[in-house]
Amino acid sequence: MRDLMGMMKQAKELQDRMQQMQAEMETIEVAGSAGGGLVSVTVTAKGECKAVRIDPSLVKPEETEILEDLIVAALADARGKAERVMQEKMQALTGGLALPPGLKLF
């Protein structure tokens, strides 16, 4: 019975830390870029786009399609970085807690 109480306490602590981490993910920002830095985006670790920066040299009507592709690439770069940050935070949060493989808590 004592082990069950300990596990329940540990689960509650993990839940509290998860809530704190989710709030923190909204404040952590990562930058992604494409085209050698001509297009950059800033997203939160949760993937919310906060800013897009486009080098003025790209703003040419005949190159609109290239610009659109670079924005998509920069967002993908930022999203990948955000996912890595979230994974690192999750690993630090769960520490030695054995979670089933593939379990996503959020």
Automatic annotation (TrEMBL):
Coiled-coil annotated spans: 4-31
Record keywords: Coiled coil, Cytoplasm, DNA-binding
InterPro entries reported for this sequence: YbaB-like_sf, YbaB/EbfC
This protein's GO CC annotations: bacterial nucleoid; cytosol
MF (Gene Ontology): DNA binding
Subcellular location: Cytoplasm, Nucleoid
Subcellular location, principal: cytoplasm
Subunit comment: Homodimer.
Role according to the record: Binds to DNA and alters its conformation. May be involved in regulation of gene expression, nucleoid organization and DNA protection.
Family the UniProt entry places it in: Belongs to the YbaB/EbfC family.
PANTHER family recorded: NUCLEOID-ASSOCIATED PROTEIN YBAB (PTHR33449)
Protein name, UniProt field: Nucleoid-associated protein D9R14_19505
